[in-house]
Amino acid sequence: MVRLSDWLGLEGQRVLVAGAGGIGAASVAAFMEAGASVLVADRDPERLSAFAGRAGTVAVDLTTTEGCERAVRAAETELGGIDVLVHAVGINHRVPILETGDDDWDRILEVNLSSAFRLGRAAGRRMVEARHGRQIYCSSVSSLLAHPDHGPYAASKGGLNQLVRVMAREWAASGVTVNAIAPGYVETALTGAYLDRPGVRDHYTGMVPAGRLGTVDDLTGPVLFLASRQAAFVTGHVLYVDGGRTLV
């Protein structure tokens, strides 16, 4: 029987996960189970403390160029390099566009899109030079569907999809793949308070042909696959992991 780590080829791989909550935390656990070495980057030391004794951590502001460079340098120092980058950083503020302030717009774009550009660029330099690497980004069904009250968030995720495609095109000849997963509604800290409002969870569940909302465990398999040797010829794709949400 072939072990999971043997099939994926992730044992001994050096993984930088950006984002210590929700999808990021689940990805850390999955990569470690597959035999990879993991460093977690986040701006919140309290969230990082949950990984003490299990994975390396670095507290940085990933919305800044210096913070992104520090995260990649930390991966080089602690792991000896970087084979895989997982960008699982994201925020949202659900209000109509006419009520969206400039500060909300700027902050959501900085966290969701600019951090992906800056961290992807920093890691990409090392990967292109090494002629090997995998980058995986967390997009959203909001990159495709016109959800009300999601203006900045949807714009950030639509922009992220196109950024993924351009990075994939520019780096393909260097052996670097760049892909994204795009979840539907998933039970995480980012969505929990909103989904707990009266009627909201049932409303969104009713939109999913699979008949339920997603969990972070639904996403780790696709993330591991895109990071693996089995996905060496897959690049520039956005994989919708949504229980059929984008079909309706």
Q: What class would the helix/strand composition place it in?
A: alpha/beta
SS strand fraction: 5-15%
Query: H/E order of the elements?
Result: HEHEHEHEHEHEHHHE
As for the number of domains, it is 1
CATH C-level class is: Alpha Beta
Average pLDDT confidence is 94
Count of alpha/pi helices: 9
Apparent shape: globular
| Straight-line N-to-C gap | 39 Å
Give a quick summary of the entry.
This protein has 248 residues and is α/β, with parallel strands linked by helices.
Topology:
Layout: H1 4-8, E1 14-18, H2 22-33, E2 37-42, H3 45-48, E3 56-59, H4 65-79, E4 84-87, H5 102-130, E5 133-138, H6 151-171, E6 176-183, H7 189-195, H8 200-205, H9 217-227, E7 238-241
Helix pairs in contact: 2-9, 4-5, 5-6
Could you walk me through the main structural features you see in this protein, from its secondary elements to its overall organization?
The protein has 248 residues and is of the alpha/beta class. The protein has a single domain, classed as 3-Layer(aba) Sandwich (Rossmann fold), CATH 3.40.50. It is built from nine helices and seven strands, in the order αβαβαβαβαβαβαααβ. The protein has helices spanning 4-8, 22-33, 45-48, 65-79, 102-130, 151-171, 189-195, 200-205, 217-227; strands spanning 14-18, 37-42, 56-59, 84-87, 133-138, 176-183, 238-241. A seven-stranded parallel sheet has the order 3-2-1-4-5-6-7, with helices on both faces. The mean pLDDT is 94.
